[in-house]
Amino acid sequence: MRESILDAAIRLMGERGSTDVALREIAREANVNHGLVHRHFGTRQDVLIAVLRRQSEVGADFLRDAENIHAAIDRLWEHPKMAENSKLVASALLGGVEPESIAPGHAFRRLEQLLEADDCTDEDRRAATAVAISCLILGWGIFGEYLTANAGAKHPERLRAQVLEILHGLSRDRPNRPGGQAV
After folding, report:
1. pLDDT single digits (tens) 123-141
2. By the number of CB atoms within 10 A of the CB, which of 23, 82, 130, 167 ranks highest?
């Protein structure tokens, strides 16, 4: 029951954004009574938080078998629901959902693990790199079409490939510490 409600919420919120979907619509889409949605989740914001947590777990599962940070970047970049998920997170945050309530960041933690395995040993640098990678991927999901048009790109796929190349470079760029050691 709970899963079918979440599936319905994901479909509707993915199509229209999190603020434009009522609990009654989610219930109708899931073929359940409105009271069941309210009993299992509470408010629309509670449904949204549950959806985002589930999406975070799905993202981590999507990265589970990534051999390295570059494979993870490619998987996230090519994820069939990247734009939809990015817009849903943005909609939630802009709608006032507290970032801490959304998710424990399963996919983000996986990026950090892969960076560590790729010899990024400095914890702060690893977190900053995972944040930068996440920002670019989420940002492209939200603004990619707009930015491509704004850039006047005659070859949008080439631009997209170049942005991906820069994204990969983030995981390779490790400034030297004083004394010449790589971070």
Report:
1. 999 999 999 999 999 999 9
2. 130
Long-range (24+ apart) CB contacts under 8 A made by 173-179 are 174/120, 174/125
DSSP string for the chain: -HHHHHHHHHHHHHHH-GGG--HHHHHHHHTS-HHHHHHHH-SHHHHHHHHHHHHHHHHHHHHTT--SHHHHHHHHHH-TTHHHHHHHHHHHHHTT--HHHH---HHHHHHHHHHHHTT---HHHHHHHHHHHHHHHHHHHHHHHHHHHHTT-SSHHHHHHHHHHHHHHHHH--PBPTTS-B-
